[in-house]
Structures are given as structure tokens and as C-alpha cells.
Amino acid sequence: MAKGAHFILYVQDQKRSKEFYQAVLQRAPILDAPGITEFEIFPGAILGLMPEEGIQHLLGYETFPNPKKAHGVPRSELYLKVEDPKSYHTRAIEMGATELSELSKRDWGHWVAYSLDLDGHVLAFASETEI
Q1: Are 93 and 103 in contact (CB under 8 A)?
Q2: Considering the entire predicted model, what is its pTM?
Q3: In this structure, what CATH number is given to the domain that contains residue 76?
């Protein structure tokens, strides 16, 4: 049985991404060291930011594709259920995210706003109740 989960996004600029997520999530990182920044997004769930530069070295030059070649191409979606998705979405846009869609009710019943973070990862801020 898992005791927690770490979700790691490969980013072009660790410092820039740290500042972005610190402002959007409104919390300080729990770890900020060369090569990794981590935010606890809820107990047992960690969002990690790892520079693209070090990924191939860490996972193997020969076998792992260079993530820098996919920069700007959506490679993941971070779907966060929060109390006020509109405020999270607004902060993301103010910090430089690209809006994909405003907060609206989706077919599956959630209210969700979508954007792309500074590296092209899809961000979704959602609520199960009407805002």
C-alpha cells in the first residue's frame, strides 16, 4: 500500500517554476535544493519540479528521450480539486500561465478552469460544487 505520492514535472527553469507554483499554490516549498523543488499539495501528495537538464543524466542518456525536445508540448495534466478554483486559475494567469478555458461546468460534473503553466503542462483547478 502506498504511503504517499510524488508527482514530478520536468521544467526548463527550476527557479522560475518555483516562483510560479509558490504564487499559484500560495505556499512555500517544503524542499528547495539544486535539482529539485517540492510542494506538499495535500498530506501525502508532493508536487516536484525538476530541471530538464538533469533528467537524462539521472535516468540514462542512452535510454531516456531528452525532455528538452518536448518543451512547450503538453506532457502532463495536474488536476487539483480546490475550494476556489477561480482564484487559483486567476493567480496562474497572472503569473504567466496561458489560459485554455475559463471556469465552467464540465460533462463529468466538476467546475474546472484550464491553463498551461510556464513549461506547457496542463493545469486544471476544479471543484465538485458550483462556484
Answers
A1: no
A2: 0.86
A3: 3.10.180.10
